[in-house]
Each structure stands twice: as structure tokens, then as C-alpha cells.
Amino acid sequence: MAESSTVTPLPITSLGSSHRPNAAHELQVENLHVHHGRICALAEVNFSIGCGHCVGVLGQNGAGKSTLLKSIAGLLPAVKGQIQWRGHPLAKVRSEIAYLPQIDSIDPYFPLTVEGLVDMGRYPHLGEHAAWRKLDREVVETALDTLQLQDLRHRRLYQLSGGQRQRAQIARALAQEAHILLLDEPFSGLDEPSQRMLIKVLRDLADNGRLLLVCHHDLKAVPEIFDTVLLLNRKPVGFGPTEEAFTPENLNAAFERRPEDVHV
Amino acid sequence: MFDFLEYGFNQRALIAAALIGFSNGALGALIVLRKNALVVSALAHALLPGIALGILVFGALNPFVGFVGALFGTLVVGLSTVYVSRIALLDHQTSLSVLYTTAFAAGLLMLEHIPSFVGLEGWLFGNILGLRNTDLWISYFVSMSILLLLFHWRRGWILYLFEADIAASMGVPVRRMNYLLTLMMVLGLVTSLQAVGSVLSAALFITPAAIVLQLARSPRTLIWGSGFVGCSAATCAIFLGNWYNLRPGAVIILLLGLMFPVSLGLKHLREGLIASNKK
Predict the structure, then answer these.
(1) I need a surface site. Which of A97, A128, A225, B18 has the fewest CB within 10 A?
(2) Do A75 and B169 touch (CB under 8 A)?
(3) Cβ–Cβ contacts within 10 Å for residue A24, how many?
(4) In B, residues 193-222, which contact A (CB 8 Å cutoff)?
């Protein structure tokens, strides 16, 4: 299936002024270590980044990209180190972080429409029983508008293309009013027009003050998508603005043979 | 026509059928969304070793021994499955298969040491007309607990079933729910045993959800719709069973099985209508 609306620009003004880049909005990762069972999956991760950036987390399979995202999302406990957002430990600001898993991990036959999926984003604000307020409806409508999903809102997930599903996921994150979006391989399986549309969506979100951390393994379009890159090979081997850190030396370090498993 | 309802055992059967039909149908929606349909069938096998152990420990098979034994057997197998699949990095179905077949084999060996097993048939094939007041109270408390737990996390369950990582990142207590869903499944199974028996108990969970899934567009419709379908089929079966002198447990399952192709037909009819509207 091809994207129906590939080139129309997104109405980014609807995102509101509360998400303008702000110096105090800073994600700080300090000396993070994460283990999978007895294997050290990620070590000595240190970086800090403000909102308004689209960060490419690059590396080969098993480099720790997904592990880093899951750890920031609070899904994997850190054995050492800490992650802070706006000076608070992550657990306290959970609703400000949205985790978007690989699209394959979502069952398209789950009985859910696009609107139902986006509604789910209100969970951190409403909890189990609170009634929907006018504000909640408006936030969902804005999210649907922003990702141009109004025409698809009553479709079931299996009736969407890969790119549309990815947009529905992002709309869910916007409905959550998340500042930080963690996207695991959002480009995998998308055709060329859908990829281009998604790049535009991600750029617009960053320009409007969100912070995006995106796992990515294809190096072709990196400078076009990401203003900042973090290269991983079980530990960081490069971090900084794309034009400075996306260098042949750093890429060599990231894509050379994976370090031996360190058992702990 | 409704004379049979003057008898206490028929009244109890009707109430139990409605309660179990509703709560197990609604719970079944969760099990189907978790893709655990066969897990329930497998778990039902853990009853036999549980009951056999009960007979060995208490010396006789009475309803109390049956209930406690069945509960113990399924609980041990069910909860250790969740734990084993987590620590052994195995999928749920593999660890369950290992555990329930082992337990079943142990149960068979135990039965050899029991001289006669009168009443075991009721547990295997169900005997809803033989319910006593205590059995009814047990069904009532189990059904209410299941429904309360469903309602308590009414949005959380849906997130958890949709994608556990997303749910956990939003603060849904995913690990606790893993155990809890297994616990609810075990409780539901044990109460449905007396109604339809262990062999057919899985159908009370799975078939209503499979029927409603053809038509539901939201998880909430699926959950409560499955409860409604399970409840109606179970109560209808008590009437049919009395009028035509049939075993009610089997009638419940057969009714559900017949409703499934009907809902499949409705689904295709609706899709045809939508398609022709678009033209």
C-alpha cells in the first residue's frame, strides 16, 4: 500500500507553544550500565541533550541501541548510573516519555481503531477510572490532525500501511503529551514515500521542541534525518552534532567487530 | 415449561451458569487477546494430578477435596509456568507444556494407588445439576473477584494486552498482571469444572471471545460482549438441557460452537455491506 498523502506539509503550529525548545528541558544520562542477564549489554553511557533535537542512535545489531531506549523508557533497570529529565529521576516523569516499539511487535489484528490507539496515550493522565475531559478529547484531536490521521481514524490497524501505522503510533505519543519520543527502528519496512513522509514528521516534531531518540541501522539518510548522532558499540563511540560526530573514524569504531560478551 | 425451576438444583444450576458464563466469557476475551487459547486447555490438564493428590492426602474425594486439589494443581502449574518462562528465557507455551505433562504423568501414577475413584467423572465431564449451596457461593465469589479485577484495571488490561512494553512504559504494572491473569484463569477454570468439566472448560473462555472478536472494534466491546455471549449461552443451555433431557454442560459448549459460524457469517455480511456502500 502506498501513502496517500506524501507531500502535504504537516500543520505544525497546532503543537502549541509549550513545546518550544527550552534550555531547562535536558535529558542527562550519567554512567549508565545495563545488563541482559549476566551479559553486559551497555556500559559507560554518558550524554546530555536538550529538547528540540532528533538524535540518531546508530550501531550494528547487538550494539545496545534498543537496550538504551528501553532503559530510558524504564523497561530495563540500570545496574549502575542514572537518567534524569529536567533534573528529575525518570520514574517521576514517566508520562513525559513515550516508547514506540518496532512496528512488528504490534498485533495489527488487535481490535482497535486508529482513534482507539491514539486514545490510549491519555492513560498516564487519566489512569484507570477518571472520566474523559474536554481537554483530553482536544489533545487527541490535535494529535490526529498533526499526523494527518483524521481520514483514517475509524480504520482498524490491519487496514493501514506500515507508514500509517507508524504515524498512528507517533500520534499516540503526542496524545500522551510526551516531550521525549523513543522510536525503535521506525523506518524499517517502509517504502520510499513513507520514509520521506516520516522524516518530515520527525523533523517537524524536533523543530517544535520535542526530543526524539531514534534507533536506526541504515546509514544512508542519516544527515538528512538527524541533527545529532549517538554511535554505540556496547558503549558510546561517538556523540555530537551530525556534522561533527558522523565521521568515518567513529563509524569504523561503531561497526567494527562487536566486542566480546563481558560476563558479570 | 418452566416447572423445572421449582427444584433447587435447577435454580442453582441456572444461577451458576449465568455467573460462570459471564465472568469466564469476559476473562476469556483477555486470554484470547493474549493469544493464550491453548494455554487454558493445557492448564485444565493440571486438574487431574491436583485432584489425585487431594485424594491421596485427604483419603477420599468429596467436593472440598476436589475443589482444593484442582485449585492447587492448576495454581502450581500455572504460576510456575510464568516464573519458569521468565528465568529460563522460554516462551510461555513451551514451559507450560513441560510442566503440565509432567504433572499429568505424576497424577496418573497417583491414581494407580487409589482403589476407586468415584466422582472423578463429575470433575472430568461436569455435573452442573449436582451443585450444592457452597459450590454456588464459591462460584459467586470467584466470578465477582474476576470481574472486580477486570474492572480495577479496566484501561490497564487493554494496554497490557496490546503491547506490554508500551504498557510498562506508561506505568501499567505489567509483571504483576502476568501473574494475576494466570491466577484469574486458574480460578475461572476451577469453577467452570463443576459446570462443564475439565475437558470442555476451555471452551467457556475461548469460544465467546472468538465469536465477539468477529464483530468487535474495541477491546472493551470484546470483553463485555464475550461476557454477555457466555452468559446467554450458558443460561439457554440449562433450559434446553431440561426440555430435551440433555447434559447441560455439553449443550453450553455446543451452543457456543454453533454461534461461532453465525458471527463469522455476520462479519462477512457486514464487510460486504461496507464494500457495496463504498461503490
Answers:
(1) A128
(2) yes
(3) 8
(4) 213, 216-219, 221-222
Parent domain of B86:
3-23+30-195
- The distance from CA A5 to its chain's CA centroid, rounded to whole angstroms, is 22
User: Is B57 in the A-facing interface, judged by CB distances under 8 Å?
Assistant: no
Read off the CATH number of the domain in which B152 is found.
1.10.3470.10
Tell me if the pTM is above 0.90: no
Domain count, chain B: 1
Q: Which of A72, A75, A215 to mutate to test the interface with B (most CBs of B within 10 A)?
A: A75
The pLDDT tens digits of the residues spanning A76-120 come to: 988 999 899 988 888 788 889 999 999 888 999 999 999 999 999
User: The domain A51-77+92-255 belongs to what CATH superfamily?
Assistant: P-loop containing nucleotide triphosphate hydrolases (3.40.50.300)
What is d(CA B40, CA B37) in angstroms, rounded to the nearest whole number?
6
Question: Where along chain A do its domains lie?
Answer: 51-77+92-255
- A-chain CB neighbours of B154 within 8 Å are 128-129
Burial A49-86 (b: 16+ CB within 10 A, else e): bebbbbbbbbbeebbbbbbbbbbbbbbbebeebebbbe
Query: Are B162 and A156 an interchain contact pair (Cβ–Cβ within 8 Å)?
Result: no
**Quick one: closest CA in A to B154, which residue?**
A128
